Protein: Aminotransferase class I/II-fold pyridoxal phosphate-dependent enzyme
Amino acid sequence: MPLRSKLPHVGTTIFTVMSQMAKDHNAINLSQGFPGFDSDPKLLELVAKYTREGFNQYAPMSGVPALQDVLSAKTARCHDYEPDPETEISIVSGATEAIFCAITAVVKPGDEVLILEPAYDSYEPAILLSGGIPIHIPLKKGDFSIDWERVISSVTFKTKAIVINTPHNPSGYVWSSSDLDHLAQLIRDRNIFVISDEVYEHITFDERKHLSLIGHEELREKSFVCGSFGKTFHVTGWKVGFCIAPPELMEEFRKIHQFVTFSTVTPIQHALAEYLKTPSNYESVSEFYQKKRDFFCQGLKTTGLEFSPAQGSFFQMASYGHLSDISDKELAERMTKELKVACIPVSAFYHNGQDHKFIRFCFAKEDSELQEALGRLEGLKRIL
Structure:
């Protein structure tokens, strides 16, 4: 019997495609966003400890209480708001699950959801699976800041939610206090919820501070804040994330979560709970990545690419339109095959594949690997 796809236009993600191409051509993989180094041995030992001590059965559906408690205290330390660990915090299997459950909890057939593009590729499928209608709003050219006039003009009586991302993937833009105030004004007196993707919360540069929606009194009343321990502690393969939301929103969130994964790996939750008690374990992450961003950007200056250093995340975008008119997908393929360096074509972050001649690199790699990649990228003009 023929199967009618619920996502007929969705194929294999560009991240999987480029990582496989990097493997096939023995290229340095600066495409998919995963660190090229291991986590703190102390954290790894804590996982082994709790595994050996028998913490290997189902965790509570909403999370291990010890992790909920320490995450509440951490949130108060970072954002001056202490969520109730029992009613406002859920531990889930990665931020992607958190985003999916949040969207599913509020979006019904016919509802419109605003997405700011370029955007991470999991947002739109989650909206479509709930029968929602994605409304795509381009970010400003150049710095990828938010065009608030365009956002406001896109709101209709059908608008149910807006998905935001700060620090932003792929551009690295970090929201300002003005952005938060504009968003608050947008949803004020309207039945609009916010799904906030904040997985790079601890990776900001040049003394910028990540401003979570949790720290904004008005916004947090209508927001699901989604985060990831994997990005912060270099353990993306663990797929452990969280969601923080007001009790009435969290109640609906958990109704979805309990039938998606129900619970998240138990010994890792206990390990993270103990590890997070030392603030320096997460407060040092920005400095660690700033050194890598600066190192990578210094090397990029010799390639002919144009760029502005990322404000946050562990990605660096670069423009090549002044050098060639070839598509970003073609360039990414040539770079992988001929220069042996894999990147992501930024057109993959647009619903209609708009090509603004940008590519994205992940600099969460060992310095030696970055140095080798930068040396290879000096041959870029040769393949254009």
Remarks:
- The two ends are 47 Å apart (CA to CA).
- The domain at 14-32+284-383 is CATH 3.90.1150.10 (Aspartate Aminotransferase, domain 1).
